[in-house]
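S1.2 Input.
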Amino acid sequence: MELEYARSFRDLFAYRRAFLAAKRIFEFSKSFPEEEKYALTSQIRRSSRSIGAQITEAWAKRKYERHFTSKLTDADGEQLETQHWIRVAFSCGYLEESAARSLIASLEEVGRLLQGMIDKADAFCSAARVAESSVLNFGTDADDPLVSQDSDQI
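S1.3 Output.
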C-alpha cells in the first residue's frame, strides 16, 4: 500500500473532517429560527469553522512543536464547544436526534484525530511532509466515520 503524504493542512484527515462537519453544521443551522440568528446560529457556525482554522494555524506553526500542540488543543476546544451548541440546538428542538447524533459523532472523530496528532506531534513537526496514516495508525478505511462509544448520549 502506498502511503499518502500530507503536504499541506488541506491534506490532513482532521482538517478534511472538520471542514465537512462545518459545512454540515452550516446547512443544518439554516433552519434555526430567525431569533437565533445572532445567538445560537452565530455561535455554532463560528465554533465549527474555527476547528479547521486552528488546524491550519497548527500546520503553519509546526516548526515549533509547542505551538503546534497548542493550536491543536485550541482546535479540540472548539470541537467540544461545537458539541455543546449541538446539544443546545437539539434540546431546543432545532435539530432532530439523528442529525445531532451524527454531527456529534463526526466531531468526536475529529477530536480523536486531533489527539492522535498531539500524541505524535514530533512526527508532524520533524518533516516537511507526513505519512499521516502511518503516524496515526489507521488503514485505508480511515475515511469511514468512527462511532463513539458513548454516541447514544446527546
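S1.4 Remarks. DSSP finds six helices and no strands in the chain.
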